Amino acid sequence: MGISAQTKSSKPCLIDKANSARTRKAGFGWNSRNWSGYAVTGAKGSFKRISAEWNVPYVKATERPTYSSAWIGIDGFRNGSLIQTGTGHESVNGSVHYYAWWEILPAAETVIPLPVSPGDHMYALIYKLRPGKWCILLRNVSKGWFFRTVQRYSGPHSSAEWVVEAPLVGGSVAALTRMTSVCFSRCRVNGRSPRLAAANGGYMVQKRVTVAIPSCPNRCGDGFTVRRSYRKSVPLACSRGPLFNPS
To answer: Does residue 136 form part of some domain?
Structure first.
């Protein structure tokens, strides 16, 4: 599949507390070095099922390696556990690669050996079968394939997320790809709309530059868009602006 041989993995949300006051003023609830999107939290055991749909972004080839992932997951926000599945998009040695994966921390991602292309429509579902047993399901609606695996997981189930991430590569948070926007839709938690609010959202900051920003949630509170950004300041507010196209 031409995927980079470097080991990639996710990491719980790396909250940046230095900008917390400005983040709240902008209407967001958090900002992070590696995540951008929406997260909801609850008591231990609150979340047993999460799902969503999204589009695979187009990535621009870059001279230096850049990486991104779009995924859904349970846990990882204000706790150190995480079960997740999604798509990866990267530019390595001037070539762009796309692929599917699943992951349960602390293990690194497991690549799903099925084709993924930019623009593909993805559907993902993670749910608890019984104590300690979870099902991970990923479907490429555009290409017609379906993947399912059952795995052991015993995290606290106290957060649920829909995220664009700059993954860990070689133990460090990677530079985020130059990519088109990722549109999450039909987000569900425990089978219902999460009724997302701007305060559930967070943006990504790398080297003092805001590199990814989520839009405000749609009117149903179950959809939003994460766009690539190059701002050197904290965003003033979540935006309902047009999709971003890399230049």
So the answer is: yes
User: How is 165-209 classified by DSSP, letter by letter?
Assistant: E--EETTEEPPBPEE--EEEEEEEETTB-----GGGEEEEEETTE
For the chain, first and last CA: distance in Å?
Answer: 26
CATH classification at residue 67: 2.60.120.700
- Per the listing, tokens 């995480």 go with 82
User: What would the two tokens of residue 229 be?
Assistant: 């950004």
Span 66-96, pLDDT tens digits = 999 999 999 999 999 999 999 999 999 999 9
Q: Which domain holds residue 173?
A: 9-231
pTM: 0.91
- Rounded distance, CA 244 to CA 227, Å? 6
pLDDT tens string 9-60: 888 888 876 666 666 666 889 999 999 999 999 999 999 999 999 999 999 9
